[in-house]
Amino acid sequence: MRSLSIFGATGSIGESTFDLVMRKGGPEAFRTVALTGGRNIRRLAEMARALKAELAVTAHEDCLPALREALAGTGTEAAGGAQAIAEAADRPADWTMSAIVGAAGLVPGMRALKHGRTLALANKESLVTAGQLLMRTAEENGATILPVDSEHSAVFQALAGEDTACVERVIITASGGPFRDWSLERIRACTVAEAQAHPNWSMGQRISIDSASMFNKALELIETREFFGFEPDRIEAVVHPQSIVHALVGFCDGGLMAHLGPADMRHAIGFALNWPGRGEVPVARIDLAQIASLTFQKPDEERFPALRLARNVMAARGLSGAAFNAAKEIALDHFIAGRIGFLDMAAVVEETLAGVSADPLFGKVPDALEEVLAMDHLARKAAEEAAGLRQQKR
Ligand code: NDP
Ligand code: MG
């Protein structure tokens, strides 16, 4: 029987993973080693019961008593805190889903790779903050990373069996989010509710707002650079409002291989779960005649400055991605809390990058997680200051 662990089980990706695992037979088909969550203890305990998990971990120590109580009599062990989450990744599992949101997902993912595991990677921040270290760790330990972000799963599938030396370009698509056709002035004045209302995808709050600002696409450009290793000038983003084509790979013979799929993350998760084969996944089937037209347009870097900032990070590499992500996370916290405006987020990130770029760590290829965390820490501090100044100016 295959064994698996799900990090971030109670989130949007975690729920979709749980759904697919249950449809494939749940505890009859898989031995669940560990499930982790944050504050949603009721749901974590429900999932642990349904999958007869050996271990359930909450990220927050103060939630541990509630988790213990919810799991009483089930035989599932309960644990709490960031350290317990890291240790859960030490427990052997054939397949591990990395779906914690934010930089907190980096540590368990790295631990799983050090043990040579197969890691389904949804947590994009891992590749953005520590791409070179992550890829090297996987290679040195014979581990496999399967991309779960839909665009990267699409590129992975389009590249299957191909000679990467013949790849001229990789194009990832962006829906354009809720503000695709909004003017700069209207975007500037948007509310949190407007920013998190994604037209095509149902996702967690943070990634939905990142889609509206196109910070999500910015992270994905960096992710593409780090995961597939193509030079930045070969990587493009194009706006495609229908979210049917997820990525295209262009070859030296002029051919473009496109990957099409429904806007349902269970497609990419299912691909990773069934890899190296394919298996039935219960997503809606695409009716091309019904869709009638697929359109594409050039992204506007003036209204969506995150894309321009991503280009700088793709060129600088090293730990610039850790600074970029940390600044983006802080800026997003401040936007959600109503302290800064929507466009202030990009300004905070740009000012943070400028502020920390003189640090020797900025362009350094990381040798250890500690360096990534040090840059993360430095950038968070700088971003807090930048956000504070923006708030005063409002
Ligand atoms: P959610 O916010 O829906 O879920 C996040 C999960 O992480 C929850 O289980 C949450 O627990 C847990 N969590 C939150 N904070 C911490 C922490 N500090 N330590 C440990 N666990 C924590 O996120 P999504 O599922 O939307 O996204 C997960 C990852 O996948 C992100 O990196 C995102 O960018 C990426 N991704 C998501 C896509 C999507 O469609 N949603 C698409 C492509 C990539 P709890 O809720 O119990 O507090
Ligand atoms: Mg994506």
UniProtKB/TrEMBL annotation:
<keyword id="KW-0414">Isoprene biosynthesis</keyword>
<feature type="binding site">
    <location>
        <position position="124"/>
    </location>
    <ligand>
        <name>1-deoxy-D-xylulose 5-phosphate</name>
    </ligand>
</feature>
<feature type="binding site">
    <location>
        <position position="10"/>
    </location>
    <ligand>
        <name>NADPH</name>
    </ligand>
</feature>
<feature type="binding site">
    <location>
        <position position="151"/>
    </location>
    <ligand>
        <name>1-deoxy-D-xylulose 5-phosphate</name>
    </ligand>
</feature>
<dbReference type="InterPro" id="IPR036291">
    <property type="entry name" value="NAD(P)-bd_dom_sf"/>
</dbReference>
<feature type="binding site">
    <location>
        <position position="150"/>
    </location>
    <ligand>
        <name>1-deoxy-D-xylulose 5-phosphate</name>
    </ligand>
</feature>
<protein>
    <recommendedName>
        <fullName>1-deoxy-D-xylulose 5-phosphate reductoisomerase</fullName>
        <ecNumber>1.1.1.267</ecNumber>
    </recommendedName>
</protein>
<keyword id="KW-0560">Oxidoreductase</keyword>
<feature type="binding site">
    <location>
        <position position="204"/>
    </location>
    <ligand>
        <name>NADPH</name>
    </ligand>
</feature>
<dbReference type="InterPro" id="IPR036169">
    <property type="entry name" value="DXPR_C_sf"/>
</dbReference>
<feature type="binding site">
    <location>
        <position position="125"/>
    </location>
    <ligand>
        <name>NADPH</name>
    </ligand>
</feature>
<feature type="binding site">
    <location>
        <position position="217"/>
    </location>
    <ligand>
        <name>1-deoxy-D-xylulose 5-phosphate</name>
    </ligand>
</feature>
<feature type="binding site">
    <location>
        <position position="38"/>
    </location>
    <ligand>
        <name>NADPH</name>
    </ligand>
</feature>
<keyword id="KW-0460">Magnesium</keyword>
<feature type="binding site">
    <location>
        <position position="175"/>
    </location>
    <ligand>
        <name>1-deoxy-D-xylulose 5-phosphate</name>
    </ligand>
</feature>
<comment type="similarity">
    <text>Belongs to the DXR family.</text>
</comment>
<feature type="binding site">
    <location>
        <position position="220"/>
    </location>
    <ligand>
        <name>Mn(2+)</name>
    </ligand>
</feature>
<dbReference type="Pfam" id="PF13288">
    <property type="entry name" value="DXPR_C"/>
</dbReference>
<comment type="pathway">
    <text>Isoprenoid biosynthesis; isopentenyl diphosphate biosynthesis via DXP pathway; isopentenyl diphosphate from 1-deoxy-D-xylulose 5-phosphate: step 1/6.</text>
</comment>
<feature type="binding site">
    <location>
        <position position="11"/>
    </location>
    <ligand>
        <name>NADPH</name>
    </ligand>
</feature>
<keyword id="KW-0464">Manganese</keyword>
<dbReference type="InterPro" id="IPR003821">
    <property type="entry name" value="DXP_reductoisomerase"/>
</dbReference>
<feature type="binding site">
    <location>
        <position position="123"/>
    </location>
    <ligand>
        <name>NADPH</name>
    </ligand>
</feature>
<feature type="binding site">
    <location>
        <position position="151"/>
    </location>
    <ligand>
        <name>Mn(2+)</name>
    </ligand>
</feature>
<feature type="binding site">
    <location>
        <position position="216"/>
    </location>
    <ligand>
        <name>1-deoxy-D-xylulose 5-phosphate</name>
    </ligand>
</feature>
<dbReference type="Pfam" id="PF08436">
    <property type="entry name" value="DXP_redisom_C"/>
</dbReference>
<feature type="binding site">
    <location>
        <position position="12"/>
    </location>
    <ligand>
        <name>NADPH</name>
    </ligand>
</feature>
<feature type="domain" description="1-deoxy-D-xylulose 5-phosphate reductoisomerase N-terminal">
    <location>
        <begin position="4"/>
        <end position="131"/>
    </location>
</feature>
<feature type="binding site">
    <location>
        <position position="198"/>
    </location>
    <ligand>
        <name>1-deoxy-D-xylulose 5-phosphate</name>
    </ligand>
</feature>
<dbReference type="InterPro" id="IPR013512">
    <property type="entry name" value="DXP_reductoisomerase_N"/>
</dbReference>
<dbReference type="InterPro" id="IPR026877">
    <property type="entry name" value="DXPR_C"/>
</dbReference>
<feature type="domain" description="1-deoxy-D-xylulose 5-phosphate reductoisomerase C-terminal">
    <location>
        <begin position="145"/>
        <end position="228"/>
    </location>
</feature>
<keyword id="KW-0521">NADP</keyword>
<comment type="function">
    <text>Catalyzes the NADPH-dependent rearrangement and reduction of 1-deoxy-D-xylulose-5-phosphate (DXP) to 2-C-methyl-D-erythritol 4-phosphate (MEP).</text>
</comment>
<feature type="domain" description="DXP reductoisomerase C-terminal">
    <location>
        <begin position="260"/>
        <end position="381"/>
    </location>
</feature>
<feature type="binding site">
    <location>
        <position position="13"/>
    </location>
    <ligand>
        <name>NADPH</name>
    </ligand>
</feature>
<keyword id="KW-0479">Metal-binding</keyword>
<feature type="binding site">
    <location>
        <position position="149"/>
    </location>
    <ligand>
        <name>Mn(2+)</name>
    </ligand>
</feature>
<feature type="binding site">
    <location>
        <position position="220"/>
    </location>
    <ligand>
        <name>1-deoxy-D-xylulose 5-phosphate</name>
    </ligand>
</feature>
<feature type="binding site">
    <location>
        <position position="39"/>
    </location>
    <ligand>
        <name>NADPH</name>
    </ligand>
</feature>
<dbReference type="Pfam" id="PF02670">
    <property type="entry name" value="DXP_reductoisom"/>
</dbReference>
<feature type="binding site">
    <location>
        <position position="211"/>
    </location>
    <ligand>
        <name>1-deoxy-D-xylulose 5-phosphate</name>
    </ligand>
</feature>
